[in-house]
Amino acid sequence: MSTVPDLKISPARLMESLAALGQVGALAGGGVNRLALTDADRLGRDWTVARMRALGMAVTIDAIGNVTAIYAGTADTKDLAPVMTGSHIDTVRTGGLYDGNYGVLAGLEVVATLQEAGVRLRRPIAVAFFTNEEGARFQPDMMGSLVYVGGLPLAEALATRATDGYTVEEELQRIGYQGPAAVGCPVVDSFVELHIEQGPVLHQQGLRIGVVEGVQGISWTEFTIEGVSNHAGTTPMALRHDAGVAAVRIAAFVHELALRHGGPQLATVGSIQLSPNLINVIAHRAVFTVDLRHTDEATLARAEAEVQAFAAQCAAAQGVACSHRRLARFEPVVFDPMVTALIAQETQALGLPALRLPSGAGHDAQMLARVCPSGMIFVPSVNGLSHNVNEFTEPDDLALGAQVLLQVLVRLAQRDA
Amino acid sequence: MSTVPDLKISPARLMESLAALGQVGALAGGGVNRLALTDADRLGRDWTVARMRALGMAVTIDAIGNVTAIYAGTADTKDLAPVMTGSHIDTVRTGGLYDGNYGVLAGLEVVATLQEAGVRLRRPIAVAFFTNEEGARFQPDMMGSLVYVGGLPLAEALATRATDGYTVEEELQRIGYQGPAAVGCPVVDSFVELHIEQGPVLHQQGLRIGVVEGVQGISWTEFTIEGVSNHAGTTPMALRHDAGVAAVRIAAFVHELALRHGGPQLATVGSIQLSPNLINVIAHRAVFTVDLRHTDEATLARAEAEVQAFAAQCAAAQGVACSHRRLARFEPVVFDPMVTALIAQETQALGLPALRLPSGAGHDAQMLARVCPSGMIFVPSVNGLSHNVNEFTEPDDLALGAQVLLQVLVRLAQRDA
Fold it and tell me: If contacts are CB pairs under 8 Å, which of residues 147-186 in chain A contact chain B?
C-alpha cells in the first residue's frame, strides 16, 4: 500500500470555516439558532454543501435529509467502502458555534488537506452531516443517523410532528432537502466523529484530547397531568385537582432521584407547560419532560421505573390523571476497540495523554456503531458549557482535534483487509 | 318618604341578558374569553353600555375605563349620593358566563324593574362595571375599583404593562374606553355587589343565598430564578445551576405550606415559565407566581415570609439567584355591619336562611368598602367551579339573588339620613 506523507491540517482555514458557518442563524448576543429544518438550517446546509462541492466532493442527499460528500480513493481501490466522518449542523435554540458543526467542518478540513497535498487514500473519505441530531424541534434526537442505520422506519421519522405543528417531511420538502439517495447509502467501512466534550471533564483535568469509550444511555419521556381548573381563591386545598402540584412534585422527585442514585446518574426536567398558566387559576393541565441518562442500562431502566411509579402515586394523591409517552430511548453504547485504540495511539503519537471517558451526550456515532466499527474524539469545552451561547473551545484545541482526526482517518483508510 | 310597592325582577329578562353577553367572546367548548382591554372586552363593554342607555341611564366613563350608569332618584332628592351596585365584565382566558357579569346585569335588571314600575327612589341607583377585576392580563387585579377609591395612583395603573407587552393606557385608548370622567366620581352613598360564590360552600350546604361578611387577604408574588443553561447529558448534577429545580422545589413548598397551615390558608402556583424550556437543556431562568390567601392578616404575612425564606435558602442550595416582586397585596376586609344586616334581613324576609361566610375571591366591593358602607350577596356555584368554562349557577338561584339585590338596594336608597 502507498505511503502517505506527514500531513498537517490548516488551523486558520478551520477557524475561518467555523466562523463563517457560525454567522448563519447568528444570535444578537452571540451563539446561533439553527433548529432542525428551519430556514436557518436550510441556509447552513446550503453553505456546507457549497463548501463540499468546492472541494470537488460528490454530494448525495437521502430521503431524511442526511448529506454525504465523498472524496474518492485511489483508482485501483475505488470499489472499497468509504471511511466516514461527520456530525450535524443543526443546533438548539440557543446553541454555540462548535456543537456538531466542528465535526463536520473538521472533516472537510481533513479533505482539504489531503486534496492540497494531492493525496488519495486506499479507501474513499466520506464527510456527512445528519438531520436533526439535537431533537430540540423534532423527537427523537439523532433522527437522521438513526434512520440511516435502520433504527427508525423512514415513514415514521417523516411523519414526526414538531411542537410548532409541522412534520419532518413537510419541512424537508419546504427547505428542499428531501433527496433522492436511498437511506443507508453509501454503506461505510468505519466511522469516526470529532466533537466538543460538552462537559467539564477534559477542561477540569487540563487535557486536550479525549478518547471516547462509549455513550451513556438516554431516556426521554413526556408526562401529561390532567386535573381541573378552578378559582385559586375559593377552592379549599382539600377539594383541588391541581395538575401543577403533581407536576412540580414529580419534577422535584426526578432531581432527588439523581442525587440518590449518584455517580453517572443524570436527570433533568427542562420543559414544563401549565394550562391555562394564569396566576389565579388552578392548572387543569401540566405537560413536562424528563431526561434521564446513565452509562448502565439496568440502572437507567430502574430510574425510569421509579419515576413512573412515583408519578402514578403522586397523581393519585392529588386526584389528577397522569399519562406519559416515550420521546426517545437509547441504550448505552460501547465503541469499537480497534477504532478506540487507533485514536489513543494517534493521540499519544502527538505526545499527549489519551484519557478514555464516556460521552454524556448522545451523538450520531452511537447510531453508526450499530452498522460499522465506530469511535469518537473529544476536545475540551471551557467550563463544560454547551447548549449555551457561551459554548467555547480554545482554537489550539480545535486544531489539535482536527489533526488527530486526520491521522486516524488516514490509518483507517489505508489499512488492509 | 314615599312607599315603594312590592317589586319582582324578571327572571327571563335576566337570563336573556346573561346569555346575550355570554355570546361575546364565546369559546368553542363553552365559556368565554374576554381578557381585560382586548377586542372581546371592547365588544362586551359596547353591549353593556348600549343596554344601560336603552334603560335611559346616564353613562359616564372615567380615565381608567370604569363605566357608571345612573338611574335618577326622585326630583326633590336629586342631590343625594347614589347607592351603587355592580361588578366587572372582564374574564379570565377560560372563564364562565357569571363571574362578574352576573352582578352587573342583575343591577341593570333591578333598574329595569324599577323603571317598568315607574318607581323612583329617594337616592339614585348607580350600576357600574370596573376595569380589569380579574388581573389575568394586567396586575394587580381589581385595578379599576382600586384606582376608583384612590388605592392606586391613576398614572401607575395606566403604565402597567401586560405580559403581551401593551400598557393599560395603550389598550384603553385602542378600544376607546379611556373616558373624560374624573376617577372616583360619582361619590357614592353605599355599595352592594351580587356575585356567584366561586366556591363550594353554599352548594355543598344546599343554601341559595350567602351573606358575605368580608374578603380574605390576597398576596400575589412573582419569583424569578436565574441559573445557567447547560447540556442535560454532560453536566454532572453537582456542577449544575438549574433554575428549574429551584422553581419546582419552591412551588412544592408553597403547596406543603398551605396543607401545614390548614384552615383557610390557600396557596397556588398557577403559572411557571422555564427558559429556554427545552427537553435537553438545563433551564437558565424560571419565572413563576405564588398566590397566597388567608382571612387573617398575621397568618397571611407569616406565609409570605415563610415562602420568601425557603426560596432564598433553596436558591442558595442550587447555586442560583432568586428575586421576587409583589404583583398584588390586599389585607383581609370586613364589610359594613349595617349593609350585612340588611342583606341578612331581606334574605330572611324571603323565608331563607342567611348564612354568613367570608369571600375566598377578591371582589371590587372590597375596594369600595374603603370609601363607603359596602357589602356582598353570594349565590351558589355548582360544585364550586369558577374560572372554568363549566362554571354554572341554577337559573332559580340567579333570579333569587337578583331579587335580594333589588330589595337591599331599595332599602338603602329609601333610608333617611
Answer: none
Count Cα neighbours of A257 within 13 Å in the Cβ-side half-sphere. 29
pLDDT bin (cut points 50, 70, 90) of residue B361 is: confident
Q: Where in chain A is the domain with CATH 3.30.70.360?
A: 217-330
Query: pTM (2 decimals)?
Result: 0.75
Minimal CA separation from A137 to chain B, in Å: 9
Asked if B258 lies within 8 A of A237 by C-beta distance, the reply is: yes
Number of H helices, E strands in chain A: 12, 16
B360, B216 Cβ separation under 8 angstroms: yes
Residue B388 has pLDDT above 90, yes or no: no
Q: How far apart are CA B368 and CA B16, in angstroms?
A: 29
Beta A210-215 vs A355-359: how paired, if at all? Answer: parallel
ipTM: 0.75
Could you read off the pLDDT of B329-349 as tens digits, one per residue?
A: 989 999 999 999 999 999 999
Question: Using CA atoms, how far apart are residues A45 and A66, in angstroms rounded to an integer?
Answer: 10
Q: Which of A281, A300, A389 to substitute to test the interface with B, most B CBs within 10 Å? A: A281
Other C-beta atoms closer than 10 Å to the C-beta of A159 total 12
Task: Return d(Cα A183, Cα B398) in angstroms, integer.
Answer: 67
Fold of B11-216+332-414: Aminopeptidase (3.40.630)
pLDDT tens digits, B141-177? 999 999 999 999 999 999 999 988 999 999 999 999 9
Smallest Cα–Cα separation from A413: which of A193, A123, A6?
A123
B401 three-class SS: helix
Q: Best of A248, A376, A379, A386 to disrupt the B interface by mutation (most B CBs within 10 Å)? A: A248
Chain region(s) in chain B for CATH 3.40.630.10: 11-216+332-414
Determine the CATH number of domain A217-330: 3.30.70.360
Q: Number of Cβ pairs closer than 8 Å across A and B?
A: 249
Rounded to whole angstroms, how far apart are CA atoms A111 and A120? 10
* 3-state SS record for A187-216: CCCEEEEEEECCCCHHHHHCCCCEEEEEEC
What's CA A282's distance to the chain center, in Å? Answer: 38
Residue given cell 407566581 in the structure block: B289
